[in-house]
Amino acid sequence: MNYLALQERPVGDIVAALELEQPSVSKHLRVLKDVGLVRARREGRQMLYHVNADAIRPLHEWASTFERLWRHQMQKVKERAEENIKKV
Q1: pLDDT in 10s for each residue of the chain, 88 residues
Q2: Less Cβ around it within 10 Å: N or C end of the chain?
Q3: Reported pTM
Q4: Of 43, 47, 52, 35, whose CA–CA distance to 10 is shortest?
């Protein structure tokens, strides 16, 4: 998705950047398009894909709640590790 964040790209460019087989990339793009995370437009014979930022925003906000949890958990791990170092 990061690769599509800055500009729309044709499937061939995506295949080359990801170093995956074209059918696999097309399948993933179709799924992302079906759920609304990616948009596509035809230009001649090429399909150009780009991120649908409006659809990704709620997903990002939802994931950020877990980010806060992970950050809190990592802080606890750090504190325990520092306590164990002091004991040694």
Answers
A1: 678 888 999 999 999 999 999 999 999 999 999 999 999 999 999 999 999 989 988 888 888 888 888 888 888 899 889 888 887 6
A2: C
A3: 0.65
A4: 47
